[in-house]
């Protein structure tokens, strides 16, 4: 029994000793490894540096930081200005950036001139590798997209982008509004000022001609709707002329009163159509042409008065509501009055039916008078021009030199008997009919000589310069088809009066 008790006691002591040994080993291991609770406590206790950051920089540290940033900026400016590399030329002058580096210092910002992007670089870094890479990428993108850039992207404001589909329409309107030649679009000097999109898609002259016709056909339905919805009278205006290339054109216009933005009324003119006259200009033919125009727009029952030139042959086809509805052209009536006043002075040539006075063939620059037919009334414009002074701003077009004299018996004229309360000439008058007639004839002879003699024109310009005459140094011609040509010639005579009284031109 004793032996068993001793063996049990020894087993208990050995077990306790082994447990104590394991406890010592565990304690030894734990003392060597950091505990998690210890790390949490250490993080909770602020260090001096973290305490300083949480409480904010001191004024002394702030001033030191500003001084350091200013010093770094000056260094960057000097580096960019003195550097041999061309990379810095692609950037604006360096500035201080709001971004900071790892040390808490503000970085240097370089703004790209092409794209405007700012590249930030630490103050401790003086290399330009990143700057050079960014500049090369921007230049490559700019080169690839130069042909497709808009004016707004180039910094030009107030201009919108042009739709390539509208180029033909814009070119057609540009030519049609000012009667410009279609070939003007392809002139090299004109293309130099065109928008790149228009220059790339510029149409030819044949295409422009077709586009103008298509635009007119496209707006006809709109015209018809506007005219049919109009409440009030529609005034029809008709006139004819001859184009520079010799085509007789009849134009029809509609005049109407419309309300403006202020609530008042204004007169609006709408061109209806332009027809090339292919037959003799008889009353029946003109009536048929105008009837087709008004019927095409559906206004044959809405047209009340008609405005047209004041010639007898037109009366044959005016069948609206009687003569009160026929508004005579005031300018044409005024021209007839002026012709009647100037007739005794030889400025106009009488017709065969009015032979009260006779004039010499050279009394006027033109050899015909105004005729009653459209064909005779429309002048044949020539392309010849004056050899004028380079300082002349308003050279007259040489038109109306040749007109047919057929059917002059139907042309309206005014004679001295039509002038009421005319004063009689007296012997003491300084200006008489004969004297004025001779003077006007001499003026016309001088203008004609300057027109057809280049040498005389050069001498006349030289005399005008010596006498100090105002420009332009030219004498306008008394063209019969121009209603104001006599007055224009007298004004040019007064302007160059000092040169006119030179013996070189008066005696000749």
UniProtKB/TrEMBL annotation:
Region (Disordered): 1-69, 347-434
Residue stretches of biased makeup (Acidic residues): 386-429
Basic residues bias (residue ranges): 1-10
GO BP, sorted A to Z: regulation of transcription by RNA polymerase II
Biased composition (Low complexity): 11-32
CC terms in the record's Gene Ontology section: nucleus
InterPro entries tied to this protein: RNaseH-like_sf, Vacuolar_transposase_reg
Protein's UniProt name: hAT-like transposase RNase-H fold domain-containing protein
Record organism: Puccinia graminis f. sp. tritici
């Amino acid at each position: 029994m004793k032996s068993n008790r001793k063996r049990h006691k020894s087993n208990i002591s050995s077990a306790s000793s082994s447990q104590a040994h394991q406890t010592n080993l565990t304690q030894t291991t734990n003392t060597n490894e950091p505990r998690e609770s210890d790390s949490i406590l250490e993080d909770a206790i602020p260090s001096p540096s973290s305490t300083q950051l949480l409480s904010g920089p001191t004024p002394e540290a702030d001033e030191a930081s500003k001084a350091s940033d200013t010093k770094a900026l000056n260094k960057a400016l000097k580096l960019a200005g003195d550097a041999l590399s061309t990379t810095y030329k692609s950037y604006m002058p360096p500035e201080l950036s709001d971004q900071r580096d790892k040390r808490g210092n503000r970085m240097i910002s370089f703004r790209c001139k092409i794209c405007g992007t700012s590249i930030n670089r630490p103050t401790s870094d003086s290399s330009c590798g990143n700057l050079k890479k960014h500049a090369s990428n921007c230049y490559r993108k700019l080169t690839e997209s130069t042909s497709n850039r808009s004016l707004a992207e180039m910094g030009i404001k107030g201009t919108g982008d042009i739709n390539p589909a509208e180029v033909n329409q814009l070119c057609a309107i540009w030519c049609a509004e000012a009667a410009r030649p279609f070939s003007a679009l392809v002139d090299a000097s004109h293309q130099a000022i065109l928008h790149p999109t228009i220059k790339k898609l510029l149409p030819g002259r044949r295409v422009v001609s077709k586009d103008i016709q298509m635009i007119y056909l496209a707006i006809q339905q709109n015209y018809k709707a506007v005219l049919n919805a109009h409440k009030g009278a529609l005034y029809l205006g008709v006139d004819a002329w001859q184009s520079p290339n010799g085509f007789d054109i009849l134009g029809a216009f509609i005049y109407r009163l419309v309300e403006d933005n202020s609530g008042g009324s204004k007169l609006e003119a709408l061109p209806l159509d332009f027809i090339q006259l292919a037959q003799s200009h008889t009353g029946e033919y003109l009536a048929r042409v105008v009837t087709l125009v008004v019927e095409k727009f559906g206004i044959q029952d809405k047209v009340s008065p008609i405005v047209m030139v004041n010639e007898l042959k037109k009366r044959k086809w005016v069948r609206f509501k009687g003569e009160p509805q026929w508004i005579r052209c005031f300018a044409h009536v005024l021209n007839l009055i002026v012709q009647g006043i100037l007739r005794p002075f030889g400025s106009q040539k009488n017709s065969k039916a009015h032979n009260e006075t006779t004039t010499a063939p050279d009394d006027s620059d033109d050899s015909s008078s105004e005729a009653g037919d459209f064909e005779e009334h429309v002048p044949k414009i020539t392309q010849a021009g004056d050899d004028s002074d380079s300082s002349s701003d308003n050279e007259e077009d040489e038109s109306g030199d040749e007109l047919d004299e057929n059917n002059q018996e139907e042309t309206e004229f005014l004679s001295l008997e039509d002038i009421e309360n005319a004063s009689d000439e007296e012997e003491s008058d300084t200006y008489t009919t004969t004297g004025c007639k001779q003077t006007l004839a001499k003026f016309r002879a001088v203008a004609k000589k300057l027109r057809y003699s280049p040498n005389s024109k050069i001498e006349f310009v030289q005399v005008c310069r010596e006498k100090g005459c105002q420009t332009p140094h030219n004498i306008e011609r008394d063209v019969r088809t121009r209603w104001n040509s006599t007055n224009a010639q007298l004004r040019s005579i007064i302007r160059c009066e000092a040169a006119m009284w030179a013996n070189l031109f008066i005696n000749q």
